[in-house]
């Protein structure tokens, strides 16, 4: 797969009219989609949450979490990246945002796209991260699956990567990233459902 160029990714995100969702009593959160290069190949980091966490234990996720008081989404994404992976990036590494995704468990998640360049050293927090995976852009460039369930009018999104299926919100966010950055297509995420096991 051809390399993506920082200025072109930033330009695509800057031209993209990302959707902000009102909180309506939900908690604000942010996740980091961090573009890194390893051995000449570009990709993003995905984590497997430790099985002892209170919420969404063992699920695949992007580094992220809820906003602290006084934070915006960018500040929170950068802080969470540092807390979870030991990687410290600054505001100058921010390329833009994707659509907010409202979860069944009561969060409004803002995806923040970052550019790290050559993969920095990581130190995953063992209290939060069971596994850190480099997902190459070639692996990410796959078509999503959409499955209808009786509990919802919206289709469940499934992203077939990492020898498993990534569901929303992670699957939805990465699908939109793939569509916009790798394919140049505007795709929305509000219509993508989570599987029932993730509703709590």
TrEMBL record:
Q: Which cofactor does it need?
A: Mg(2+); Mn(2+)
Gene3D superfamilies hit by this protein = Nucleoside Triphosphate Pyrophosphohydrolase
Pfam families xrefs: NUDIX (PF00293)
Q: Which residues form the Nudix hydrolase domain?
A: 26-160
Q: Which GO terms describe its molecular function?
A: coenzyme A diphosphatase activity; metal ion binding
Q: Domain of life, per the record?
A: Bacteria
Query: Which spans of this chain does the record mark as coiled coil?
Result: none
For this protein, the record's InterPro entries field holds: CoAse (IPR045121), Nudix_hydrolase (IPR020476), NUDIX_hydrolase-like_dom_sf (IPR015797), NUDIX_hydrolase_CS (IPR020084), NUDIX_hydrolase_dom (IPR000086)
PROSITE patterns reported for this sequence: NUDIX, NUDIX_BOX
Q: Which UniProt keywords apply?
A: Hydrolase, Magnesium, Manganese, Metal-binding
Family membership noted in the UniProt record: Belongs to the Nudix hydrolase family.
Q: What is this protein called?
A: CoA pyrophosphatase
Please give the organism: Prauserella cavernicola
């Amino acid at each position: 797969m051809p390399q993506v160029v920082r200025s072109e990714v930033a330009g695509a995100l800057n031209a993209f009219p990302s959707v902000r969702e009102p909180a309506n009593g939900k908690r604000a959160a942010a996740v980091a989609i961090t573009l890194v290069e390893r051995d000449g190949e570009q990709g993003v980091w995905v984590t497997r949450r430790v099985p002892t966490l209170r919420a969404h234990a063992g699920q695949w996720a992007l580094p992220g979490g809820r906003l602290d008081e006084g934070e915006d989404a960018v500040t929170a994404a950068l802080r969470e990246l540092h807390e979870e992976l030991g990687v410290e990036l600054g505001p100058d590494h921010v390329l833009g945002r994707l659509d907010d995704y409202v979860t069944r468990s009561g969060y409004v998640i803002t995806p923040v796209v970052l550019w790290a360049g050559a993969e920095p050293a990581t130190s995953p927090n063992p209290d939060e991260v069971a596994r850190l995976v480099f997902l190459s852009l070639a692996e990410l460039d796959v078509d999503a699956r959409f499955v209808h369930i009786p509990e919802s009018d919206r289709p469940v999104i499934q992203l077939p990567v990492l020898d498993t299926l990534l569901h929303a919100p992670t699957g939805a966010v990465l699908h939109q990233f793939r569509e916009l950055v790798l394919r140049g297509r505007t795709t929305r995420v509000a219509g993508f459902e989570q599987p029932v096991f993730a509703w709590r």
